[in-house]
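Standup notes
- DV: blocked on the single-chain target, sequence here:
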Amino acid sequence: MTRHTLVMASFLLETHVMGAGPTGCMVALALAQQNQRVVLFDPQAFDALTSRSRAYAITHSSRRLMQSLGLWDELQKDLVAFEQLDLRDLAAGRQVIFVAEDLAKKNRGHRGIGWILDHRPLMTVLLRKLQQSALVEMHLGGEAAPIPSPDSLVIAADGPSSPTRESWGIHCWQHRYRQGCLTAKVVLRGIQANQACELFRPEGPLAVLPLGNDHFQVVWSAPMQRCQERSALPPSEFLDQLAGILPQGIDPDLLLDQPKAFPQQWMLAHRLSRGRGVLIGEAGHRCHPVGGQGLNLCWRDVDVLVRSVQKGGSAKRIAARYGRQRWIDLILVGSATDLLVRCFSNRISLLVGFRRIALQLLKHSVGLRQLSLRAMTDGPLQIGRALPD
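- DV (later): unblocked, structure below
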């Protein structure tokens, strides 16, 4: 071994990632591309990790991360761009349409306000890239992972019920919403293939996300019991109920999968690091799905953690630096989504009047639309800052 190799080896940091979902896989790949040795563990096998029936909204902050890791071009055929975002408040009788010209200038050349990406192709590409990396050691499907060495960085990416977080004794602030959420894939008529919709309704928001070929995913918020009842309906009855709440002219033709209902909560860990361990993704925070911020917020965790690793230092220093830097973004996005749901999911006359005025201003002000999209697509901390190309 040459002297140069010995010097390089002394700087290699071994990292253990607990959880191989989209965020755990993304951070494992990002660190491996930084020449870090990574041990990735998940009790689920490859097939289970790729088989989830759901889709994600991808914003420009996530696009930049995917491009930096060589994922963007490989997933291009699976990314469905939406060039219009139709925002409607049914109780206030107001509609605002965001278009590509409302984006920051450096985002306008990328063919979309945002993108929708299905879970299966995303996870298939991520896991394949990790399997091909000589720096990644994978332990999936119940295979025991080696115990981390005393100087290893340990990353908890094992979801909202994170056993790793629990073992570290980190508690959470949390609030379970009265609303649950129901997701389903459907064929729709009367809506443009490049259009996404967010409908604010008294029982909760409804998002309609394009998947290509007249296929759409609906993310339907309502009281949890109602979500469970709807998920158990025969397909024809489910489609009838969906038709009753969609805007006039948009009609569902076919149900493509089994609707799934799940509870919604806001959650934030009391701390994002302890010793040489860090919490990323839903192990550290959750927010309401309104606005499609969830995965993008998780992937900004990845970006900040990788930058902390690049700055160097011991695992404890890297973890502490990451923990300090993530708070503001998480609090701002979590608070904004919580406020949106509380403000728009009711018929209180004073709030309806306020919403009517606010949406009218948004409709007629290019500056307000640009500011809103900048916060949604790049993250609130990027407002006023120069964006990378």
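- Follow-up: Residues 1-12 have pLDDT under 50 and may be disordered.
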